[in-house]
Amino acid sequence: xxxxxxxxxxxxxxxxxxxxxxxxxxxxxxxxxxxxxxxxxxxxxxxxxxxxxxxxxxxxxxxxxxxxxxxxxxxxxxxxxxxxxxxxxxxxxxxxxxxxxxxxxxxxxxxxxxxxxxxxxxxxxxxxxxxxxxxxxxxxxxxxxxxxxxxxxxxxxxxxxxxxxxxxxxxxxxxxxxxxxxxxxxxxxxxxxxxxxxxxxxxxxxxxxxxxxxxxxxxxxxxxxxxxxxxxxxxxxxxxxxxxxxxx
Length: 248
What we know:
- The longest helix is centred in the middle third of the chain and has 24 residues, at 80-103.
- By secondary structure, the protein is an alpha/beta fold.
- It has seven helices and eight strands.
- The strands form two sheets. It has a six-stranded parallel β-sheet, sandwiched between helices. A two-stranded antiparallel ribbon has the order 1-2.
- Mg(2+) binds at residues 27, 214.
């Protein structure tokens, strides 16, 4: 789907366009911990707290969709100790999220490849989606075991299966149909991408969906990204003249 409609909101005395859909590459947990002479997994734990906070802050600002990059298909290359710590953190986060999400009327979806994840985590993901399916507030998407190229390959395979079954033909395939086979089916493309920690690349995150998104890069490490940081990103977004391939 194309980028969504923006909404005017008064924020700290400023009238700002609030993006409908914000995507975030949450980077810098390890560096945050290293600066404090703490284990990397302590940084991931603090990053999880920042994740809880940004959901609340997005809801307060009127952002309707939030998609975060939690664990990529490439992150399996990290040390066994770090990956084990992250998976244990996921387990706790997924369980705690059910009550927290229902209390805030937040709908949660998990995107990415479930094959390869521990079975108990997949079960918790299914339960979280099931228990929050009826919520009508912020739509929160967590990318776990996600890679953008992998998502596109999986979409192509599903299209080919449907074509072989006679459900679609080659002439049916266009951008709109292709988007229906992606993990983000039915969700407007992000208006704004935020990446923390000073890195300036998309790292295989939502390559199809970010085609016309605005990019905001900040040196702030993810555990320190708070409401003021989010408002600053929205201010930056308001300075951009959005173009979708047309000349103005």
